[in-house]
Design a protein that fits this description.
By secondary structure, the protein is an alpha/beta fold. The chain has 2 domains: 136 residues, P-loop containing nucleotide triphosphate hydrolases (Rossmann fold), CATH 3.40.50.300; 92 residues, P-loop containing nucleotide triphosphate hydrolases (Rossmann fold, 3-Layer(aba) Sandwich). It is built from 8 helices and 9 strands. A 6-stranded mixed β-sheet has the order 5-6-7-3-8-9, sandwiched between helices. Helix 3 packs across helix 4 and helix 4 runs antiparallel to helix 5. The longest helix is centred in the last third of the chain and has 21 residues. The chain is globular and about 50 Å long. It starts with a strand and ends with a helix. The structure holds adenosine-5'-triphosphate. The site of adenosine-5'-triphosphate has 12 residues, from strand 1, strand 2 and helix 2.
Length: 245
């Protein structure tokens, strides 16, 4: 049974303040920013969860904790199933290498047999429609081209749990349609989806549940329409408050 569960998770970012601020102030040491404290979430087989929240609510951080990119300082992440994550157009790509070389490396890192890597690469090149650009360094790609490449990389995997963070909207309209179709086909084989996106249209297309988070806390977790309704309501209130200031 595929499942992903976060149990009493605590997570903070550690960072050094900006150089100018650091030199001018006496307390220039390492800072800590607490994002999640005693955070719990349990996602089951068949759940296609939209992750909602304003900028800075903690969506990307949460996805990275789920994916194992970040380790919580306390608590546990228990996952049953093969996870694949898409974190946008720059993560997992080496800009100095060509698109093709990046694909080859990705295939090798996933420990796939050579024949499968070559087959998948053909499919990805075809899907991304990058043409001759596939031989050029990724640093010369436009934003849309990078999205096509990194999104195409999803073709390498058959995952039980798909974690997708934003980024998808960066492609042109035509590619977006293609990407949507592709996600639909991936969803046939994956059992859990967690999808952070600011487009309600996309979220409604792919999700059946939603979790609304704010300042690292769950405000509501449940049926998609209900949570979207609450989110819109709260945003409306917030806008009204801001306008009144
Ligand atoms: N590398 C970092 N160092 C310090 N603080 C960070 C770092 N990355 C994010 N944060 C902080 O953590 C909190 C959660 O950020 P996160 O990126 O998870 O939000 P988000 O909901 O994904 O936002 P957005 O919708 O803008 O992408 C924010 O307060 C943010 O300022």
């Amino acid at each position: 049974m595929t499942r992903i569960r976060l149990k009493n998770v605590n997570f903070s970012y550690r960072y050094f303040p900006s150089i100018s601020g650091g030199l001018l102030r006496s307390n220039a040491g390492l800072r800590s920013h607490l994002v999640f404290e005693n955070f719990n979430l349990d996602i089951h087989d068949g759940d296609r969860v939209a992750l909602l929240g304003v900028n800075g609510a903690g969506k990307s951080t949460l996805l990275k904790i789920m994916a194992g990119v970040y380790t919580p300082e306390r608590g546990e992440v228990i996952s049953k199933g093969k996870i694949y994550s898409f974190f946008g157009r720059s993560i997992g790509v080496m800009p100095q290498l060509s698109g093709l070389e990046n694909l080859e490396i990705r295939g090798l890192l996933l420990n796939l047999p050579d024949e499968i890597i070559q087959n998948k690469i053909k499919q990805i090149i075809d899907f991304s429609e990058l043409g001759e650009a596939i031989y050029r360094p990724v640093s010369t790609y436009s934003v849309g081209m990078r999205t096509r490449l990194t999104f195409g990389m999803l073709m390498f995997v058959e995952a039980d749990i798909m974690l997708i963070d934003e980024g998808l909207g960066a492609g042109d309209k035509f590619f977006l349609k293609k990407a949507q179709k592709f996600i639909e086909s991936l969803l046939d084989s994956s059992k859990i989806l967690v999808f952070a996106n600011h487009s309600m249209e996309l979220l409604k297309k792919f999700c059946n549940k939603a979790v609304l988070i704010d300042a690292g806390e769950i405000i509501q977790f449940g049926e998609l329409d209900k949570v979207i309704h609450l989110y819109n309501h709260l945003r409306h209130l917030e806008l009204k408050t801001n306008n009144a200031k």
